[in-house]
Amino acid sequence: MISFEFSQDQKQFAKVLRDFSTKELLPHYTARAASTEFPYDAFGKLGDLGVLGIGLPEKFGGTGEEDPVLLGLATEVLAAGDINLASAPIQVGLVGSQLLHSSDEVQERYLPTLIAGKETLAIALTEPGSGSDASALRTTATPVEGGWRLNGEKTAISWAMNAAATLVYARTPGTTRSQGVSCFLVPMDAPGVGRRQMLGMGCLPIGWGSIHLDNVFIPHSHLVGEEGRGFRSVMSHFDFSRAAIGLMCLGAARQSLDEAVAYSQQRETFGHPISTYQGVSFGIAEQATLVEAARLLCYKALWLRETDQPHTSLASMSKWWPPQVARQAIEVAMRIHGNLGYAAEFPHQARYRDVMAYLVAADGSAEIQKRIIAGDIYTRGTVGY
Question: What is the CATH number assigned to the segment(s) 122-228?
Answer without folding.
Answer: 2.40.110.10
